[in-house]
């Protein structure tokens, strides 16, 4: 009973140490993540959301309206009064005769009009190239994007209009290479930059259809998306082709899934296609780039779950010493717990300087070597290598390795617990626990009597 209490105290103390290590790693990661994300965003680029262009037209109309009979009389009377006043000023007794030209009896009305146009068709191509970048204990999923969009607009007016097309920039502060607006067949295009958008203006003939092309090359991080507008929009003749050079694809929430997905010819990635004749939606088309396993969160999670590994190891070791009649003191268990803790401590600070796999391999080797060499001197080579070494390999190394596969940690621990229970139940099925514990007590009493004498 004293041994079990001592093992419980050692386990709780180790648990506290692992909690402190996990909290330290989480703090190192969380406290610096916003800063590092901003640094990577400034150097490489942030999320890109390309919004569909807005097209508007303006035109002027001129109409002629003839005066009514009443307006004509009023106009003639005004002209006569003007002639009388003019004669009075000049000292003439008789005013001059008035002449009214027919054009004076016509009102010319000039009006400026404007309206927005919907896109007749949308054909977008986006080529995404993945490039992971590391800052501190975090990996950031960065990418290059080659964007090309072709749109058509129609002039519904029976006269030439001035068209204005606005392309919002997909990311604030990003770097754009070869960004351009072109209008094939139209040579009066004028392009300006206004705030966070590029604007093209050109003359669109009456009832004409014009193609507008827009493209650039840029760099971003984590997510790329194409949006039809801020609200629900109707989109006609939509085609979007997205090419990736990575296999693991995922789509953002509230996005439209592709209509087809095929492998690229070179086998490196996918070609995704969206093809809609008429779409009414407020959703977007997008892609989440694959995230690499981050050292900081991984080290924190492994430290947080490390007490589970130690519990199973202590449990198996306690059962084995009961079956084999071994004498392993609680102080020996303390040093074994310290060897387990050395694995997480070394991994947490080594992973900041070398690759995750190499840090995991070295940390596992150090911990296994500590336990093996210690138990070899304490119990023997065979027990240290087979029973203890195998248990540590399963409960510490394999349990920790399960953290590399997202979603499988709990399942791995569950399977390990069930298998451990099955093995222990069969090994101890014929064991007389009362005799084993009593024998230990008698041996301890005899040693005490002998030492007292």
Please, could you describe this protein's structure?
The chain is of the alpha+beta class and about 450 residues long. It folds into three domains: about 1-30 and about 295-450, no CATH class; about 45-55 and about 120-290, Immunoglobulin-like, CATH 2.60.40.3680; about 60-115, no CATH class. Helix content is about 45%, strand content about 30%. β4 and β5 form a beta hairpin. α5 (about 355-380) runs antiparallel to α6. Mean pLDDT is about 85; it is low at about 440-453.
Task: Please give the largest β-sheet.
Answer: 7 strands, mixed
Q: Quick check: average pLDDT? A: 86
Classification by helices and strands: alpha+beta
Question: What shape does the CA trace take?
Answer: rod-shaped
Summarize the amount of helix as a percent range: 40-55%
Report the end-to-end length measured between terminal Cα atoms: 26 Å
User: Strands across the major sheet, in which order?
Assistant: 7-10-5-4-12-14-13
Oligomer: single chain
Rg, please? Answer: 41 Å
Q: Could you tell me the number of beta strands?
A: 15
Contiguous uncertain segments of 5+ residues: 440-453
Please indicate the count of domains: 3
Structure annotation, total helices: 8
N-to-C series of helices and strands: HEEHEEEEEEEEEEEEEHHHHHH
User: Strand content of the residues, in percent?
Assistant: 25-35%
């Amino acid at each position: 009973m004293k041994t079990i209490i001592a093992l419980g105290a050692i386990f709780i103390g180790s648990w506290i140490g692992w909690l402190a290590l996990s909290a330290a790693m989480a703090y190192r990661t969380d406290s610096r993540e916003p800063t590092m994300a901003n640094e990577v965003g400034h150097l490489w680029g942030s999320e890109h959301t390309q919004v569909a262009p807005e097209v508007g037209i303006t035109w002027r109309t001129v109409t002629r309206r003839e005066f009514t009979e009443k307006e004509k009389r009023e106009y003639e009377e005004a002209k006569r009064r003007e002639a009388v006043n003019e004669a009075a000023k000049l000292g003439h007794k008789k005013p001059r005769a008035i002449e009214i030209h027919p054009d004076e009896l016509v009102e010319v009305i000039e009006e400026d009009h404007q309206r927005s146009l919907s896109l007749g068709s949308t054909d977008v191509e986006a080529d995404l190239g993945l490039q992971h970048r590391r800052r501190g204990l975090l990996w950031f999923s960065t990418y290059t994007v080659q964007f090309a969009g072709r749109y058509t607009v129609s002039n519904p007016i029976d006269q030439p209009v001035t068209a204005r097309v606005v392309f919002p920039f997909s990311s604030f502060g990003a770097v754009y290479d070869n960004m351009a607006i072109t209008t094939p067949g139209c040579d009066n295009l004028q392009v300006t930059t206004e705030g966070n958008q590029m604007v093209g203006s050109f003359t669109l003939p009456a009832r004409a259809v014009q193609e507008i092309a827009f493209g650039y090359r840029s760099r971003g991080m984590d997510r790329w998306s194409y949006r039809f507008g801020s609200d629900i929009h109707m989109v006609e003749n939509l085609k979007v082709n997205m090419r990736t050079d990575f296999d693991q694809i995922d789509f953002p929430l509230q996005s439209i899934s592709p209509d087809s997905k095929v492998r690229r010819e070179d086998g490196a990635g996918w070609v995704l296609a969206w093809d809609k004749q008429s779409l009414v939606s407020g959703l977007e088309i997008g892609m989440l780039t694959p995230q690499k396993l981050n050292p900081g969160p991984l080290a924190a999670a492994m430290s947080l779950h490390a007490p589970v590994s130690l519990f199973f190891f202590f449990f198996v070791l306690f059962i084995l010493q009961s079956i084999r009649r071994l004498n392993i003191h609680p102080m020996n268990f303390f040093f074994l717990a310290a060897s387990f803790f050395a694995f997480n401590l070394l991994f947490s600070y080594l992973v900041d300087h070398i690759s995750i796999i190499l840090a995991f391999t070295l940390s596992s080797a150090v911990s296994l070597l500590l336990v093996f060499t210690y138990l070899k001197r304490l119990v023997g080579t065979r027990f240290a290598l087979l029973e203890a070494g195998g248990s540590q390999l399963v409960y510490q190394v394999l349990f920790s390795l399960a953290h590399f596969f997202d979603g499988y940690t709990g399942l791995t621990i569950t399977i390990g617990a069930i298998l451990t229970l099955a093995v222990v139940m069969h090994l101890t099925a014929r064991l007389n626990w009362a005799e084993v514990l009593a024998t230990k007590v008698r041996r301890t009493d005899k040693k005490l009597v002998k030492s007292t004498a």
